[in-house]
């Protein structure tokens, strides 16, 4: 199973132990929150994600994974957003590595909107709802910190671009440098707002999910959208 393989590759022995404990974890969640947990959604990637129903009939989504900093940042971002433009966080336990999320219905992704201009307008509206100034004492990573990965790339490959095209690495470096100088007022960004992370919903027409939670220039947000959906991108000459 690719999900199990991914967890083992990412977390090693800790991931193996987490997988072994997963059935017991789900049972604990069911008892604690009075949940009926259904089989997981197909095509799991980095987390175990399954629909569930509370005893009061409320539908939700259970998301679980080995506790890690990226998960903690996602939880913090969801709490900051408070459901504005994004799925609501109903509860979470960082020690257990579990999030309980609002179930979005019908939940069809923005990839289903084939009119590119219409899809872009929808995404832009979601962005405007999400962006907000971070608190002064925030602990979110910044886009500049993410950009430091380019320096680590150079250090790893003796100043070279490694397996990546040299011109693209140089362009990315210049873009980050320009963004640092000309940065607008930084805001809390989703950080991975591509078409599959924007779903049709009832509370609002469209809502985001799976935020990375990163602080930076608003222009940074459009990158994930521009390089998706990947099949359409690859179809361009």
What does this structure look like?
There is one protein chain. With 237 residues, this protein is of the alpha+beta class. The chain folds into two domains: 2-102, Phosphorylase Kinase, domain 1, CATH 3.30.200.20; 110-235, Aminoglycoside phosphotransferase (APH), C-terminal lobe (Aminoglycoside 3'-phosphotransferase, Chain: A, domain 2, Alpha-Beta Complex), CATH 3.90.1200. Helix content is 42%, strand content 16%. The protein is built from eight helices and nine strands. It has helices spanning 2-33, 69-81, 116-130, 143-147, 149-156, 166-181, 222-226, 230-235; strands at 35-37, 48-54, 59-64, 89-93, 98-102, 187-189, 198-200, 206-208, 214-216. The radius of gyration is 19 Å and the shape is globular. The two termini are 35 Å apart.
Could you give the topology of this structure?
Layout: H1 2-33, E1 35-37, E2 48-54, E3 59-64, H2 69-81, E4 89-93, E5 98-102, H3 116-130, H4 143-147, H5 149-156, H6 166-181, E6 187-189, E7 198-200, E8 206-208, E9 214-216, H7 222-226, H8 230-235
Antiparallel strand pairs: 1-2, 2-3, 3-5, 4-5, 6-9, 7-8
CATH architecture term of the largest domain: Alpha-Beta Complex
Radius of gyration: 19 Å
Cross-sheet strand order for the largest sheet: 1-2-3-5-4
Q: What characteristic shape results from the CA principal axes?
A: globular
Indicate the percent of residues in helices: 40-55%
Proportion of residues in β-strands: 15-25%
Which segments are poorly predicted (pLDDT under 50) over 5 or more consecutive residues?
none
CATH C-level name of the largest domain: Alpha Beta
| Count of separate structural domains | 2
SSE class: alpha+beta
Order of helices and strands: HEEEHEEHHHHEEEEHH
Rounded average pLDDT: 92
What is the assembly state of the chains in this entry?
single chain
Supply the CATH superfamily name of the largest domain: Aminoglycoside phosphotransferase (APH), C-terminal lobe
Biggest sheet descriptor: 5 strands, antiparallel
């Amino acid at each position: 199973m690719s999900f199990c393989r991914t967890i083992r590759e990412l977390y090693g022995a800790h991931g193996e132990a987490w997988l072994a404990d997963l059935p017991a974890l789900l049972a604990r969640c069911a008892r604690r929150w009075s949940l009926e947990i259904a089989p997981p959604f197909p095509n799991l990637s980095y987390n175990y994600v399954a629909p569930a129903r509370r005893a009061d009939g409320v539908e939700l989504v259970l998301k679980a994974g080995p506790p890690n900093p990226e998960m903690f940042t996602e939880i913090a971002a969801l709490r900051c957003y408070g459901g504005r433009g994004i799925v609501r966080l109903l509860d979470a336990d960082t020690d257990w590595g579990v999030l309980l999320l609002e179930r979005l219905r019908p939940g069809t992704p923005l990839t289903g909107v084939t009119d590119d201009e219409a899809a872009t307008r929808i995404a832009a509206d979601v962005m405007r709802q999400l962006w907000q100034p971070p608190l002064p004492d925030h602990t979110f990573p910044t886009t500049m910190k993410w950009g430091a990965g380019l320096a680590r790339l150079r250090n790893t490959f003796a100043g070279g671009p490694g397996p990546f095209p040299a011109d693209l690495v140089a362009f990315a470096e210049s873009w980050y440098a320009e963004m640092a100088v000309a940065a607008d007022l930084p805001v809390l960004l989703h950080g991975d707002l591509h078409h599959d992370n924007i779903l049709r919903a009832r509370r609002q027409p469209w809502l985001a999910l799976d935020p990375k939670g990163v602080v930076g220039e608003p222009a940074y947000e459009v990158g994930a959208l521009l390089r998706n959906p990947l099949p359409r991108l690859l179809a361009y000459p």
